[in-house]
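User: Can you fold this complex?
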Amino acid sequence: MSSTSPETRPALEVVNVLKQFKQAGRSELFTAVNRVNLTIAPGQIVAMVGSNGSGKSTLLSMIAGSQRPDQGEIRVAGVAVTDMPSWQRTGLVALVRQNPEHNVFSALTIAENFALADAGKSKRFNLKGAVTPRIKDMARAALAQFSMGLEDRIDNLAGNLSGGQRQAVSVAMATCRDPGLLLLDEHVSALDPTRARVVMEKTEEIVRARRVATLMVTHDMSHAIKHSDRLILMHRGQITMDLGAEEKAGLTVPTLLRRFEELTGESLPDSAVLA
Amino acid sequence: MDITSILLIGAQVGLIYGPLALGIYFALNVMSLPDLTLEGSFGVGGATTAVLLLKGCDPATALAGGMASGMVMGFLTACLHVYLHMNVLLAGILMTTAAWSISLAIMGAGNISLLSQATLFDWVGKGFGLNAQWSQILVGSGFSLVVALGLIWLLQTNYGMSLRAAGLNIQTARGLGIRTETRQIVGLVIANGLAAMTGGLVVQSQGFMDVSIQTGVIVIGLAALMIGMSIFKTPRIVPSIIGVILGIFIYRVVVTLALKLGLPPYFIKLATAVVVFAIVAIRSHGFGFIAIPGTERARKAAREHLDYLENDRVVNIT
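Assistant: Here's the predicted assembly.
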């Protein structure tokens, strides 16, 4: 641990990270992430776009801990997490996945899901009752931010909620742990456009209020432009474009798509173009 | 036919199997680990209990020793899964096969008579002035109740919640800071300890230990689990556990009834399997599979059947 305060350390440092996979029936390896360097400042919201197979998900998996890089180093809030199992990173990284089934336990109540998130934050899986009045208050407060009426349903099974409601619960659970870095892996792409907009706006509001650094993968270019401080583009395992707040200002979806085509010679699938 | 006597026999023979049924519920339902070692642990638990009784231990200590031997079996199965990356089903099959030899090695003979040893049932019978049937009902219901309450308590704690999470989705659980491999080890240790507890109780209640008692015993627990899960269809803990205890009782009442109606004893295992088939059929099809062809219900059943076939997945356990 360094002596600098958490506020001044970068929320994320990805240094020269390489990840290759064996391909069935071929001798040469497929390079999913090709010596990527990426630094995210505390409190910064970074949107990451790129076509399928560009390496976004692999990079996210390595930061979250479900995969390990072949080379390079990953630090979250100054802590080297490169070879740390995912369950040890809970205080540092929180991940919200695309599929609501993978973020909350349908067979548990909302309050029980929050109890797990809270116990996991401090790794205190002890023999005390899990759902306490404190947990219920915390769950109600975290869910009230979404104004979906979820705070009145905390004793319901999470399986009874709609996809959008479950993603709202997931974001509330991930942010109430105050992680050093929040990872959003297309967390609204399975929702209908209206729900997606509501959950996305509330997510940004909460993340800004709590000053949680965020790396957000999205296929929706308008979300990527509107709800971020910085926009990066991945292509063939590398970051090919990195736009800060000034460069991003005034950027429109058509300009972004055109710039992508100029850079890569390929077109970018954008869910918003179809909408 | 006297319905009271059938219910009493059901409680007398069935409730001793309560811990085993709850162990199977815990492994299969809560932890999602299809662990067949439970059958082997039942035998090893019985063998250890019998030998400890012969060596002069009191019945409670002997039962605790039996439980400990089952917990070791569960620990070994979990280690095969966690460290050798072996499928739990395969590990369980191997451990159950090994358990046969382990039981014989512990016993030093194929069977042991315990007729001159005092058992828990003698203690309770003398202590409360009860006959054999009532002392078996009291011991069986006592153990089932304590184990049921213990599991209900455990699964509502922070640690118990992390066990449930590890049995629901490993990736999500790890993302929440749960070291899932230790939860799988603890889960199998608890489940196999409960199976061995029933093994020890059965040996004490019948007054002898035979190495063959383990054969097919998991099916009894499966029957109870299936019946129990069909009573309250919910993932919530309290109704599920009550359901499993009711399930073991209902199963034994049905078996007693079948025997009274003249079913030969060697048909019990076949009858048990048929009961499980019937429950699974009703759970997955409702009564659609006996619907009249051409009706809306039959068409719905056909659609659901096709959905099942289209979404079927192979599981390679090697």
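The interface with chain A takes residues 154, 156-162, 164-165, 168-169, 171-180, 235-236 of chain B (CB under 8 Å). Chain B has 14 helices and two strands.
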